[in-house]
Amino acid sequence: MATPPLTPRMLTPTTLSPLGSPRAKKSTATVMPEITLEQPSSKTSKSPGSKSTKLFRRVRSAFRSLPIMSPMCKLPMGGARIHENHVHGGTRVTGTLFGYRKTRVNLAVQENPRSLPILLLELAIPTGKLLQDLGVGLVRIALECEKKPSEKTKIVDEPIWALYCNGKKSGYGVKREPTEEDLVVMQMLHAVSMGAGVLPVTSGGGGGGGGEGDLTYMRAHFERVIGSRDSETYYMMNPDGNSGPELSIFFVRV
User: Which parts of the chain are coiled coil (predicted)?
Assistant: First the structure.
């Protein structure tokens, strides 16, 4: 008898890493789906032990507790024009917000739902709080880092940013490489182009993932607009096409 395909309702129990991303709970009953996500056309495969990955880990550890000196959030001045649910000059990508309601939210950006993430961020905002704010109105997130002389690094390849949500300092945003468990979530959602829901985990007392509740996700089309080498913006588009973006994420070097 053929084994039925995995669906979001069949997500196995998980625990959390310190920054809130899923981490597999060791269990003899754990069944992981085969990862069939395609390599994005704009990015070649990177080894988990590559120098860039190790550099990200070292910088993240060294700077997580240090402040970024910036008196205020400076959003990029832009002329992004919205027409028929499309941003002029933008490139459409798939964005997924996911995480446990009381832990930090993750943002995965993909070329399409069936490709590997081209960008994965951990934001110091509880998942439940962000989704609640999105239900009330427009949310603007600014990720700000310091501009250095002769900067050659792409802005989305910076390892850490000061995070502002609707103008209020909210900690930091950190870029990281996808874990196996992140890829499991993306694999289970590979047939979902847009939507929201939960990936339930088994409740249980004590430690483990049971105390964290359901893993919540929201997937939508984003429009990526590159303003300059020091500014880039992602607009999450409203699927009904009758209004502007519900979520705007600004990357800026100042």
Answer: none
- CA separation for the pair 180, 130 (Å, rounded): 25
Spell out a b/e string for 46-65, using b for 16 or more CB atoms within 10 Å of the CB, else e: eeeeeeeeeebeeebeeeee
Q: What is the per-residue pLDDT for 95?
A: 96
Tell the residue number behind the tokens 């847009």, with chain if given. Answer: 194
Q: What pLDDT, in 10s, does the model give residues 72-124?
A: 455 554 445 554 555 667 899 999 999 998 899 999 999 999 999 999 999 99
* Strand, helix or coil for residue 77: coil
As given in the structure block, the two tokens for residue 148 are: 């250095």
Residue 104: closest CA among 54, 171, 57: 171
Distance between CA atoms of 119 and 108, rounded to whole angstroms?
6
- How, if at all, do strands 215-228 and 86-87 pair? unpaired
Predicted model pTM: 0.71
* Confidence at residue 241, expressed as pLDDT on a 0 to 100 scale: 57
What six digits make up the tokens of 34?
A: 């085969």
